[in-house]
């Protein structure tokens, strides 16, 4: 078999068989296929697409390219949740303790921030002492002892995806439904959960900008889940507006704690509670209405907040942060972003708000950049809100004084003010099973 012929076949719009997909992945991972040939094939896939069978084969081959975590020693059904990435998306920090407080084990492997989107692991590391780097045995033992662990990837999960994602990132081949679906699902399959809830984001802050493409991606991933014997459902949620008011690592942890105290922003509460209820439903402990009640009860009783405190303590963090937010790293500079004309917030280009937070220090410009956990943005106003001249729309937090003007320019581009009121859109847009 020759790589040249595989590229030629896909370039001409033909279907690749399993042997060809296996050859590409194995030989590329063994450094026997150069980047230029792999990039040519990825671009051919990007332009010509892959059918359902090819996408499933690519997913399985990538899932089998490294370790597969075995969670079978943890009693009960393990339900995972994955978000395709957004701005201010801190739902994992809320739903994971809720689900664990309802008696369903949570063995959650999470990622770091990618571009303008944040990552759960970076957020958790803003809690003084919190360790996210665990061995597989430690990770499993934590779930067995307290019912919950959230860690960065342990072991060598789907290394083929890692290598191919890095190449896609620099060859303009990220935004293809088959490639995104196989990338995400290969990691989910390798990380061992029995059932999967997917939160597919849609809008200006998401990888998928249109509702139609988001539904296509959700259907592709749900199909892969079903074809590999894992019950999978997807919820399509709005990312045309940041979720909640906090964007940035410790700011988002504080907002998640407030939500577990039943005191957070309503949009964040609604999406997190719904995803938690869908996870509980998938675990089989009740119908959707019963699961929604269990979620509300876990929060109102304080059990979900206690579970979060237990998680922090068990992974070496200082659980006092829950009652004393001054224990989080504090920034030197805090600057108000002031409204210059009266009207209504018509829209927010959410990726630009993510970028503004990144330049303030909350994200990575390159993969080796160091994160400033105290940096970020607190939004006081969001799409649909009335604003007057002089109102504080947002507060910017940073240790980089020189970044403030660039962040302000990005917010000027991001926040569109109009004279007419604008209806707020629903947040939960579709459910696919
Ligand atoms: N997240 C992933 O893990 N992979 C993609 O391809 C896109 C988003």
Topology diagram in text:
Layout: H1 3-11, H2 18-29, H3 35-48, H4 52-63, E1 79-83, H5 91-101, E2 106-109, H6 120-124, H7 136-146, E3 148-151, H8 159-169, H9 177-190, E4 195-202, H10 211-227, E5 231-238, E6 246-247, H11 249-260, H12 266-283, H13 288-300, H14 303-314, E7 333-338, E8 343-348, H15 350-362, E9 376-379, E10 386-387, E11 392-398, H16 404-414, E12 415-418, E13 428-432
Parallel strand pairs: 1-4, 2-3, 4-5
Antiparallel strand pairs: 5-13, 6-9, 7-11, 8-10, 8-12, 9-11
Helix pairs in contact: 1-3, 2-4, 4-9, 4-10, 5-11, 5-12, 5-14, 9-10, 12-13, 15-16
Structural class, by secondary structure, is: alpha/beta
Compute the number of helices. Answer: 16
How many domains is the backbone divided into? 3
The unreliable regions are: none
Number of strands: 13
Proper CATH architecture of the largest domain: 3-Layer(aba) Sandwich
Read across the widest sheet, the strand sequence of neighbours is 1-4-5-13
- Output the CATH class name of the largest domain: Alpha Beta
The major pleated sheet works out as: 4 strands, mixed
Query: Overall pLDDT, averaged?
Result: 95
Helix and strand run: HHHHEHEHHEHHEHEEHHHHEEHEEEHEE
Structure ligands: uracil
CATH superfamily of the largest domain: Nucleoside phosphorylase/phosphoribosyltransferase catalytic domain
Radius of gyration (Å): 22 Å
The outline comes out as globular
Helix content: 40-55%
């Amino acid at each position: 078999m020759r790589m040249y012929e595989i590229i030629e076949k896909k370039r001409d719009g033909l279907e690749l068989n399993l042997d060809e997909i296996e050859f590409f992945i194995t030989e590329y991972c063994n450094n026997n296929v150069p980047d230029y040939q792999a990039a040519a094939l990825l671009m051919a896939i990007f332009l010509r697409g892959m059918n359902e069978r090819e996408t499933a084969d690519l997913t399985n081959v990538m899932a089998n390219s490294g370790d597969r975590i075995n969670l079978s020693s943890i009693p009960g059904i393990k339900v995972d949740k994955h978000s395709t990435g957004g701005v201010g998306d801190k739902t994992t920090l809320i739903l994971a303790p809720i689900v664990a407080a309802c008696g369903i084990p949570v063995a959650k492997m999470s990622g770091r921030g990618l571009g303008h989107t944040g990552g759960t692991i970076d957020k958790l590391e803003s809690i003084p002492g919190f360790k996210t780097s665990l061995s597989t045995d430690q990770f499993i033992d934590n779930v067995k002892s307290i019912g919950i662990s959230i860690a960065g990837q342990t072991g060598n999960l789907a290394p083929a995806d890692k290598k191919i994602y890095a190449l896609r990132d620099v060859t303009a081949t990220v935004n293809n439904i088959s490639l995104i679906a196989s990338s995400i699902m290969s990691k989910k399959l390798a990380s061992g959960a029995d059932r999967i809830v997917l939160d597919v984001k849609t809008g200006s802050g998401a990888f998928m900008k249109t509702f139609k493409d988001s539904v296509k991606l959700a259907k592709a991933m749900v199909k892969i889940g079903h074809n590999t014997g894992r019950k999978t459902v997807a919820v399509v949620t709005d990312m045309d507006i940041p979720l909640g008011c906090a964007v940035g690592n410790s700011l988002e942890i504080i907002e998640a704690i407030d939500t577990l105290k039943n005191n957070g922003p309503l949009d964040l509460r609604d999406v997190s509670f719904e995803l938690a209820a869908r996870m509980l439903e998938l675990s089989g402990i009740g119908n959707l209405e019963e699961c929604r009640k269990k979620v509300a009860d876990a929060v109102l009783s304080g059990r979900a907040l206690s579970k979060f405190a237990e998680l922090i303590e068990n992974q070496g963090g200082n659980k006092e942060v829950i009652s004393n937010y001054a224990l989080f790293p504090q920034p030197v500079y805090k600057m108000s972003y002031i409204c210059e004309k009266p009207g209504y917030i018509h829209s927010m280009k959410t990726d630009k708000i993510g970028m503004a937070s990144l330049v303030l220090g909350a994200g990575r410009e390159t993969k080796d950049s160091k994160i400033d956990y105290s940096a970020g943005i607190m939004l006081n106003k969001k799409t649909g809100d009335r604003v007057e001249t002089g109102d504080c729309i947002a507060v910017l937090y940073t240790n980089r004084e020189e970044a403030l003007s660039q962040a302000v320019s990005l917010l000027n581009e991001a926040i569109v003010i109009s004279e007419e009121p604008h209806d707020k859109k629903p947040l939960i847009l579709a459910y696919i099973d």
